[in-house]
Write a structure and sequence with these properties.
Helix content is 35%, strand content 20%. It is α+β, with helices and mostly antiparallel strands. The strands form 4 sheets. It has a 7-stranded antiparallel sheet with strand order 15-12-14-13-17-18-16, with helices on both faces. Strands 5-6-10-8-9 form a 5-stranded antiparallel sheet. A hairpin with a 5-residue loop joins strand 8 and strand 9. The structure holds flavin-adenine dinucleotide, lactic acid and zinc ion.
């Protein structure tokens, strides 16, 4: 990328404005910022800036704006679609929020907390618990991902069914705009109809419209009793029926409804310590459910067992285990939260993050299984998903050796994704449910997005960031371009 506007030594100018201790140029301090979580995308940058506060972010952005230097915002760098690392020869800077990790305020009387964007998700959860409140976003990367990254990707995870995704949990934001101005929208109001709801533009924008520096978040009462169960099912159709039935039987109490294929549980057991499935893996499908309530665990368990007995009599359930204590419950969730790590270790997983309406999940799974099986008979289909949200992580797995033997890997990737994304589109679904676009799905944006929607998005981007310095060539494909990852 050529940026004719760069006339100053931007690194020296940043070091002068911020201090050299906040601007890293090379060496081991810099390397981790350049490689994505999968280890599949690597780029480079002029430097990595680690601001200590919003003022530092604003100074950095203003300087980059004046000289048209691209900025690649980075949170915990757990993006699974190459969104947080710069491309090769980026000519830009990485701006990491890692040092801005403070919990600024936790107010149980307002059911709200305010944190800096670099606050780890796990730290925010713990701060809420300290005042007897719940911050309900939960996902496998919670020990490494940051609130700013969660907001920028509108993260989902396992609590969406009950609490919504990140967009539903944000009350207010502070954002440094692409020209260096600070927008302070850090309010905890539940109601504010005074004009456009600007915060929603930045949520899910993946750093293309500005840098989130702080956020006000919603807190919830803690449900004191939680019962978890793992359920084996002979049919995917039955999984949807059982899930819907549990939603009806436990209104407002069913907080998680997670789906696994048996192949996924086998893979986790093989690659992750202490993650063996407590049920025999001779059924094709499994559900992990959480039911959380003020009702006692004993009563919840009895109601759940009753309901599952009915489903077993109807032939919908093959087997089930209800966790008898907190240790068993944690063991079930350890399995769930280990899937991504296990899949990364297992081989080359071509992973897809599709969503379709919940009722259409069985049709999607059957048609996709047939099509992938025909086209790639040696690949293994490994599925984990947030069934309650119609969101499947559909992995087509090749062993490391098998993948090395694939002669045209790019073509294979494309063929696999085309099958799955075309089918998702036919089911009125999406090719990106919760992981975002990053640099990975630009081609799909061009192919599957309504042209009117794309046009509106480009208009917003141009208005906010006319110099195209904020995470350029992420999220939006260049006009007229229907391919190319810009990595
Ligand atoms: P990064 O990866 O650093 O960045 C993500 C994007 O946001 C990039 O475009 C970056 O430029 C931008 N960004 C980061 N911080 C800011 C900021 N302060 N201001 C503006 N832009 C910013 N996602 C789900 O939705 N559900 C899951 O269940 C889930 N599970 C996961 C499990 C594992 C093991 C892993 C590795 C990832 C998982 N993810 C999941 C994907 C990922 O989106 C989330 O981990 C998380 O939301 C990303 O946060 P981060 O701080 O790591 O952001
Ligand atoms: C999960 C990630 C992959 O649900 O989104 O585990
Ligand atoms: Zn997920």
């Amino acid at each position: 990328m050529t940026r004719p506007g760069i006339t100053v030594d931007i690194v020296a100018a940043l070091q002068e404005r911020l201090g050299s201790g906040d601007v890293f140029v090379d060496g081991p301090d810099v390397a981790p910022f350049m490689v994505d979580w999968w280890g599949r995308a690597a780029g480079d940058a002029l430097c990595v800036v680690l601001p200590r506060g919003t003022g530092d972010v604003a100074k950095t952005v203003a300087l980059c704006h004046d000289h048209s230097v691209p900025i690649y915002p980075q949170g915990g760098n757990t993006s699974v679609c190459f969104g947080a690392v710069p491309p090769a020869r980026s000519g830009g800077i990485v701006l990491s929020l890692a040092r801005m990790d403070a919990v600024l305020d936790v107010n149980p009387r307002d059911s709200a907390m305010t944190v800096q964007a670099g606050c780890l998700l796990a730290k925010a959860q713990a701060a809420a618990l300290e005042v007897d409140r719940l911050f309900p976003l939960s996902l496998g990367a919670e020990g490494s991902c940051q609130i700013g990254g969660n907001i920028a990707t509108n993260a989902g995870g396992t609590g969406v069914l009950r609490y919504g995704n990140m967009r539903d949990l944000v009350l207010g934001l502070e954002v440094v705009l692409p020209d260096g101005r600070i927008w302070n929208g850090l309010r905890t109001l539940r109601k504010d109809n005074s004009g456009y709801d600007l915060k929603n533009l930045f949520i899910g924008a993946e750093g293309t419209l500005g840098i989130i520096t702080a956020a006000a978040l919603k807190l919830f009462p803690i449900q004191p009793n939680v019962v978890s169960a793992l359920i084996a099912l002979p049919e995917i159709d039955g999984a949807v029926t059982v899930g819907t039935d549990l939603g009806t039987a436990f209104p407002g109490e069913l907080t998680a409804l997670e789906l696994f294929s048996a192949s996924q549980l086998r893979l986790v057991a093989r690659h992750i310590a202490n993650a063996a499935c407590p049920l025999a893996l001779d059924s094709p499908w499994f559900l992990l459910v959480d039911i959380a309530s003020a009702t006692s665990c004993k009563v919840l368990s009895e109601r759940l067992v009753d309901r599952l007995a009915g489903a077993t009599d109807a032939g919908l359930v093959a087997d089930a285990v209800v966790a008898a204590n907190e240790r068993q419950r944690a063991a079930l969730w350890h399995i769930r939260h280990s899937v991504t790590e296990a899949n990364k270790t297992a081989g080359m997983g071509l992973s897809h993050d599709i969503a379709v309406p919940v009722f259409a999940v069985p049709s999607f799974v059957c048609l996709a299984g047939d099509a992938i099986g025909r086209a790639f008979p040696t690949a293994e289909i490994v599925i984990v998903g947030h069934l309650g949200d119609g969101n499947l992580h559909y992995n087509v797995m090749f062993g490391h050796d098998a993948w090395a033997r694939v002669t045209d890997q790019a073509r294979t990737r494309l063929e696999v994704s085309r099958i799955l994304y075309d089918l998702a589109a036919q089911h009125r679904g999406t090719f990106s449910a919760e992981h975002g676009i990053g640099a990975l799905h630009l081609e799909e944006m061009a192919r599957y997005k309504d042209p009117v929607e794309l046009d509106l998005m480009r208009t917003i981007k141009r208005r906010f960031d006319p110099r195209n310095i904020m995470n350029p060539f992420r999220v939006l494909p260049s006009a007229g371009c229907d391919k190319g990852s810009h990595l």
